[in-house]
């Protein structure tokens, strides 16, 4: 059974940094488009960033552009979300998801595999 797992969440002060990791068992992430999403309390889940499966093109929501970076390490079968200059409004449960389509742009319900999420709290 395929498992996608996020890790690296935690409590950080405003202005701080965290790096989230997305790994998988029984699934090679290379070639999959990986999306990062987040859901804050009382809000809908929203897309944060995406790295395409074909050329590793990256896309970011306007709210995180310039602060977040996503990358993949093929050898480690891991995709990262580096989050810098964190703000309280970045507080949410962060999810990664894998899509067999080779480009970003799929709707959330088109993603094939989802992780269980990792909590990120930005607070002083």
Overall average residue pLDDT? 95
How far apart the termini lie comes to 40 Å
Order of helices and strands: EEEEEEEEEEE
Which strand-content bin applies to the residues?
over 45%
Supply the helix-strand structural class. Answer: mainly beta
Shape: globular
User: What Rg do the Cα atoms give?
Assistant: 13 Å
Low-confidence stretches: none
Task: Please provide the count of β strands.
Answer: 11
Question: How many helical elements?
Answer: 0
For the sheet with most strands, the description reads:
7 strands, mixed
Helix content: under 10%
Give a brief outline of the structure.
By secondary structure, the protein is mostly beta strands.
Give a verbal description of the structure.
There is one protein chain. The chain has 124 residues and is an all-beta fold. Helix content is 0%, strand content 48%. It has no helices and 11 strands. It has strands at 3-7, 10-12, 18-25, 33-39, 46-51, 58-60, 68-73, 78-83, 92-99, 113-114, 118-122. The strands form 2 sheets. Strands 2, 4, 5, 6, 9, 10 and 11 form a 7-stranded mixed β-sheet that branches. A 4-stranded antiparallel β-sheet has the order 1-3-8-7, with no helix packed on it. Strand 4 and strand 5 (46-51) form a beta hairpin. The protein is globular, with a radius of gyration of 13 Å. The model has no long low-confidence stretch (mean pLDDT 95).
Topology:
Blueprint: E1 3-7, E2 10-12, E3 18-25, E4 33-39, E5 46-51, E6 58-60, E7 68-73, E8 78-83, E9 92-99, E10 113-114, E11 118-122
Parallel strand pairs: 2-11
Antiparallel strand pairs: 1-3, 3-8, 4-5, 4-9, 5-6, 7-8, 9-10, 9-11
């Amino acid at each position: 059974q395929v498992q996608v797992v996020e890790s690296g969440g935690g409590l950080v002060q405003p202005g701080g940094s965290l790096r989230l990791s997305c790994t998988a068992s029984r699934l090679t992430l290379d070639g999959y488009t990986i999306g990062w999403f987040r859901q804050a309390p009382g809000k809908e889940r929203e897309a944060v960033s995406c790295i395409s499966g074909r050329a590793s093109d990256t896309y970011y929501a306007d709210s995180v552009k310039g602060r977040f970076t996503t990358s993949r390490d093929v050898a480690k079968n891991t995709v990262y979300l580096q989050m810098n200059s964190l703000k309280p409004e970045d507080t949410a449960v962060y999810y990664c998801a894998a899509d067999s389509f080779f480009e970003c742009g799929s709707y959330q319900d088109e993603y094939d595999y989802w992780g269980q999420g990792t909590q990120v709290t930005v607070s002083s």
